[in-house]
Amino acid sequence: MEIRKTCKICNKKLGYRQRTYCSATCRNKFYNKKYSKQHTEWQRKKRDKEASISDIKKIKCEICGKYYRQVGTHIIQIHKISAREYRKQYGFDVKKGQLPNDLKKLKAKQIFENGTVNNLKTGKKFWFKKGSKTAGRYERSEQTMNRLKQLHKFNKR
Question: Is the pTM of this model over 0.70?
Answer without folding.
Answer: no
